[in-house]
Amino acid sequence: MTLLLKKARIIDPDKPLHGQTRDILVRHGQIAEVAEDIDAPAETVIDEPGLQVAPGFVETFADAGEPGTEFRETLDSAAAAAAAGGCTHLFVGPNTVPVRHNRPTVEAILQRTFPSPVRIHAIGAVTRDTLGKELAEMHDMRAAGAIAFSDGQAPIQQADILVKALQFVKAFDGIIIQLADDGSLAPHGLMHEGVISTQLGLLGRPALAETLTVSRAIRICAYTGSRLHLTGITLASSVEEIWQAQANGVDVTGAVTPHHLMFCDEDLSDYDTHLKVNPPLRSRAERDVLLQAVKAGQVDMVSAHHLPQHLDHKQCEFEYARPGIAGIQTLFPSLRQLGLEMDLIVRLLSQRPRRTFGLPDPGVLPGSPADLVLLLPDDSFTLTAGMVRSRSANNPLIGRPLKGQVFGTILGDRWETFQ
Q1: Cα–Cα nearest to 144, from 94, 109, 177
Q2: Where does 48-194 have alpha helices with state H?
Q3: The whole model's pTM is what?
Q4: What per-residue confidence (pLDDT) applies to 115?
Q5: Using CA atoms, how far apart are residues 122 and 106, in angstroms rounded to an integer?
Q6: What domains sit in the chain, N to C, each tagged with a CATH number?
Q7: 207: closest CA among 230, 238, 177?
Q8: Which end of the chain, N or C, is less surrounded by CB atoms within 10 Å?
Q9: pLDDT score at 111
Q10: Mean pLDDT of the region 21-31
Q11: Are 392 and 73 in contact (CB under 8 A)?
């Protein structure tokens, strides 16, 4: 494949060509040339007004459904949705059937061959069957290619297990991903505990479930001297605690989701099950402060927390609806809709995840492997159900006007377009 991008603005912070408008020639999966004007034969020429190019995005906490619940999602459909969201790397969680907790289950994902617009990375379980009781075979999973370890949607609740897990992965410089949620506090809670939950007559879950988890996990991480990533952060106080820990030399990072930046508990006034998530949407005040923390550069990264659910599990009473948003396809437009600048978006979705999880960050430079996303940051559109590439359509942004489109992705010798 030979692909020529004409007059594309490069968004690659801290790299030599950042902010420059250049022609980019991609040949045989590599950036062959970057110059002001390239006149070379190419199979495909893209000359799109307003086009910007950046290192491909990385989604670090997705549920692909396969194996076991392919009716919700498959690796193929998850990869298609991820690419349409601008991702070239996709981390798939361990909450499958069977649970991905040993070498064969990791190999089954990584050795599966199908034409994919993204590179799929397996997250191995920390404990057997994600039950939080006995450590899984993390060393073998790492040898098989697991990118990180997490119990995913069933985060580790016992301190002693988290201590042992962090001590174990330290031997091979592994990293644990922990959802910031203490399941023992109001385990049957349906939304954020506050005025709105009282008005709606729904059992609430306190913010304390997050603050306890974050505080404990950071202290355990400091004690073990290992590496920890806290995902699903919803409180500015959690961001501040992670920030302070980093300043004190603790190897901990944090991620927030787009839906916790866009919505709050007030948006549940009509019992919209598409907004039922875990951790729950917080108050308007908490949401606004969290967004300001992101804009101030105090948050390490943003993750879609892609969790597709079948229609039957969303079109039901709020009490019985399953939590989750299939939001990976709207990852980029969500952040543009919130007013984030392009430099910050690329840091949050590409550079910092790559640095944290040890993925290559070759940049938009001659001689680098092609690992790129093509963006139209100022284009507006309305997402329709027919545009959704996931098998599930539990996305509250369907039917809403959005700003910022993904034009395409380039990964090696594979080129995808979404226009």
Answers
A1: 109
A2: 75-84, 103-110, 138-144, 159-170
A3: 0.96
A4: 75
A5: 6
A6: 2-52+366-417 (2.30.40.10), 56-357 (3.20.20.140)
A7: 238
A8: C
A9: 87
A10: 96
A11: yes
Coil/strand/helix, residue 52 = strand
- Please return the burial class of 70, using the count of CB atoms within 10 Å of its CB with bins 0-12, 13-18 and 19+: middle
Average pLDDT, the chain: 96
Taking only the tens place, the pLDDT of each residue in 368-398 is 999 999 999 999 999 999 999 999 999 999 9
- 322 and 313 in contact (C-beta within 8 Å)? yes
> Using CA atoms in the order 287, 291, 296, 300, what is the torsion angle rounded to 10 degrees?
100
Structure token digits, residue 42: 């190419």
Instruction: Give the closest residue to 334 by CA, choosing from 365, 305, 293, 368.
Output: 305
d(C-alpha 230, C-alpha 408), whole Å: 30
Question: Measured between alpha carbons, how far is residue 59 from residues 53, 103, 140, 270 in Å?
Answer: 18, 22, 24, 30
Which residue is it, tokens 């302070």?
A: 244
Other beta carbons less than 10 A from residue 237's beta carbon: 18
Structural element, H or E, at residue 43: none
- Residue 75, amino acid: L
What sign does the dihedral 342-345-350-354 (CA atoms) show? positive
Strand, helix or coil at 379? strand
pLDDT in tens, 250-262: 999 999 999 999 9
Listing DSSP states for 332-378 in one string gives: HHHHHHTT--HHHHHIIIIIHHHHHHT-----S-TTSB-EEEEEEEE
Q: Using CA atoms, how far apart are residues 66 and 207, in angstroms rounded to an integer?
A: 32
pLDDT digits (tens, 9 = 90+) for 278-311: 999 999 999 999 999 999 999 999 999 999 999 9
